[in-house]
Amino acid sequence: MSKKILILSLSPLKTDPRVYRQISFLKDRYWITAAGLSDPEIDGVTYIPLKGSVSTLPGKIRNFVRLKARRFEAFYWSINSIRYAYTALGSETCDLMIANDLVLLPLALRLAEKMKTPVFLDAHEFTPREFDHSPLWRFEFQGFWEYVCRTYLPRVSAMITVCGGIADEYRRLHGVACRVINNAPFFVDQKPSGVRDDRIEMVHHGGLSRSRKMENMIRLMEHLDPRFRLTFMLLNNDPSYLDRLKNLASGEDRITFRDPVPMQDISTALNGYDLGLYLLNPASFNDRMALPNKFFEFIQARLALAIWPSPEMARLVKAHDLGVVSEGFTIEAVARRLNALKTDDILRYKQNAQKAAVRLCAEKNRDRLLQMVADLLGA
Known about the structure:
This protein has 379 residues and is of the alpha/beta class. It has helices spanning 17-26, 57-68, 72-77, 80-89, 105-115, 135-152, 164-174, 215-220, 239-249, 266-270, 285-288, 293-300, 311-320, 331-339, 343-359, 362-377; strands spanning 4-8, 31-36, 46-49, 96-100, 119-122, 158-161, 179-180, 200-206, 228-234, 255-258, 275-278, 304-307, 323-325.
């Protein structure tokens, strides 16, 4: 392990599934230093703590002025987390730098210029349209992210993202080669659970997000026959929104909330359910193109799936015959598909998830990432 890789992320490394897997993939072949908001707690990995940004009202005003004056470099290098990271990492050396998310790309390239090392960008999603459903966000930030793409993407040595739709958008708008490594978790060796004729257990897990309109999954229960139950296993990252969801569900005894489990235990904890439910409101470009961790965790849990026609998820559901995809983005449309389900349908979908779990797992992605890194390092 003569080569050293520096991995950068402004996220908690222990609980960020994609970055955690990235570190795990590479640690056995290279010396890894990981910089982020929390220690990944992976043996043999050196950790450098970074800090998130905290904005004051005067700071927000100054940043707004910089953005509208198109002083994009001044805005970027005034961000607290970026300034701190530049100082914390200024004396580091490495043979390859991996920047997670577009926000770290200018920093990584400046550091890499001093180190004479290539930069590998994991863009995750499509940052220039991350919140494009918000007129205020578009007015304030979209021009900045488009500038970052124009200015810095041509300088990366390799680039990946989470799905084909986002990779195509980076190629179309910015002419960069972008490969896909999806968000599949590690393979879990387990079998599908049985299905009762009179009771179908649905589950949804993950973080809270108001823009995703998670209340739609609660309202769905009003349209489903008595067989269906729904369990939420949600991170409490927005307490007031969680309270709102619980209040909305309080009159429905078929809906329950349970505590979340550690990231590595999710697919095992979900195995006793029948159907993974995800009705993702297609508000932004990234939401429309979403292919999230939870989708693959449902598969590793050996569940059938029920989704709206989000194109990236729908493509895989149909290709592997994993569940139901509604005809449109309405509660009524998915309710019609669910109410028509027979026990044998769900059993078939769960058996198909058993087959797909071998192919849609992190171990397959590991080989792709290792080859890309080896090509960059010439080894």
